[in-house]
Design goal:
442 residues; mainly alpha; 74% helix; globular
Length: 442
């Protein structure tokens, strides 16, 4: 007969109270791994789907509109504006729906919609339908909040950082794979082929998730849907009470807008300046993703303890500024690759800004902080593409004041210089020793 722990307690004494198991509320290891693998693939496919069409968008838009590259470029900015604006409002709504009805239906609906939407965009010859398609893509791609919630559902607190890091690696991996595959397909089969490839990926992922992805939200954790909670600007209002946060958030916005000189006009500018094909563009964007992964995943851990927060922010800003200036004036395409390596060190600024913000905000406001950062990144994604594609169009058109395809890179460099002002103001409002240097004996 088995003896229970209570049976072994001495007479007249009570058995020690069992400590609650930190992992008891989470699924078993096998189920947790399966659910995490599924949501990792969802994020990966989302980013591949986003990146796979970047190298071919100039060719597709010139084909659909019948315009020159200079004339068609603003439409590329407007399409990205629509995508980002819809995603900005859809993300908190999908997050609220996932809290009400569960994660599984939101994920499945997004994947199915993504698959159908890319087929429509690949077939259409109408600019209006292309806009509508990207608007729906903004809805279906707004799964990041749900993905993060799923990780929290299935992972005990002590293991969440590791899994969030792996999920973040999926973003980088998707952006490396997507443009390279899109460039190869575009060169071989035309600018519509990457859309069908993205649709096939989403459809395959839908089938996988339908059979293997379990619901991760427990019934007792469901809550009623509220539009008030789905307000994407709410976190900005709350963080306004911390004086240091205003200049930091402005810095983030300006720095991110500067990066859209790369993300939204790279295909247009390199095609115009160097005569690059979709394959060339895809390989270069893969190099951007790879260099960023090396810096963020390996080198930062050695650099940041030596430089500390403030110096890292300055060095990262300088690296990005120098890279953009080079991009603007490079005469030959092969020169782009060494500059990509320089620009990758802009990650110094991004990582250090996150650290600076986190230590100046109370522990019970960290969620609001991350929400506010996401809002500023989204706002930059809304306005940045329009600014940069319009600049490219103005300086490459027939009535250009001076023919200069690299003009958007100069605008991006100017944004970084402008960001120096709120950065210096933020430095003046941050007190106390730098924890990066302090823990390493500096």
């Amino acid at each position: 007969m088995a003896v229970s722990p209570d049976d072994t307690a001495p007479t007249g004494t009570s058995a020690p109270e069992a400590k609650p198991d930190a992992d008891a509320a989470f699924p078993g290891l096998k189920e947790s791994r399966l659910a995490f693998a599924a949501i990792f693939m969802v994020v990966l496919v989302d980013l591949i789907g986003f990146g796979i069409i970047i190298p071919v968008m100039p060719d597709l838009l010139t084909e659909v509109t019948g315009l020159t590259r200079s004339q068609a470029a603003p439409y590329g900015g407007y399409i990205l504006f629509v995508f980002a604006a819809i995603q900005f409002f859809a993300t908190p709504i999908l997050g609220g729906l996932a809290d009400r009805y569960g994660r599984r239906p939101v994920v499945l609906l997004s994947l199915l919609g993504y698959a159908v939407d890319f087929v429509i965009m690949g077939l259409t010859k109408s600019l209006a339908i292309l806009f509508v398609g990207r608007a729906f893509s903004g809805v279906f791609a707004a799964t990041y909040a749900t993905a993060n919630a799923i990780v929290a559902d299935i992972t005990s607190p002590q293991h969440r950082a590791q899994r969030f890091g792996i999920l973040g690696a999926g973003f980088g991996l998707g952006f490396m794979i997507g443009p390279a595959v899109g460039g190869l397909l575009g060169d071989a089969y035309g600018p519509r082929a990457p859309f069908f490839a993205a649709s096939a990926l989403a459809a395959t992922n839908f089938v996988f998730c339908y059979f293997f992805f379990p619901e991760t939200l427990r019934p007792e954790n469901k809550r009623a849907f509220s539009l008030r909670r789905a307000n994407p600007l709410g976190n900005l209002v709350q963080l306004g009470k911390y004086p240091v946060m205003v200049p930091i958030l402005i810095t983030i916005f300006l720095f991110q807008v500067s990066q859209f000189s790369l993300q939204t006009t790279w295909s247009w500018i390199t095609g115009t300046k160097f005569g690059w094909t979709a394959k060339d563009i895809g390989y270069s964007l893969m190099a951007v993703g790879l260099s960023a992964a090396i810096v963020q995943g390996f080198l930062l851990r050695f650099i940041l303890p030596v430089t500390g927060e403030k110096l890292s922010i300055l060095l990262g800003g300088v690296a990005s500024f120098v890279a953009l200036m080079f991009y603007a004036f490079l005469p030959q395409g092969w020169m782009v690759y060494p500059v990509i390596a320089i620009g990758a060190f802009g990650a110094l600024a991004q990582a250090s800004v996150q650290s600076l913000m986190s230590r100046t905000i109370p522990a019970n406001a960290q969620g609001e902080l991350q929400g506010a950062v996401a809002v500023m990144l989204s706002l930059a994604a809304i306005f940045g593409p329009v600014i940069m594609t319009q600049t490219y169009s103005v300086f490459t058109g027939e009535s250009a004041p001076i023919y200069f395809p690299g003009a958007p890179f100069l605008v991006g460099a100017a944004m970084i210089l402008l960001a120096a002002i709120p950065t210096i103001i933020a430095f003046g409002r941050v007190s106390g020793p730098d924890p990066m240097l302090r823990k390493n004996g500096f």
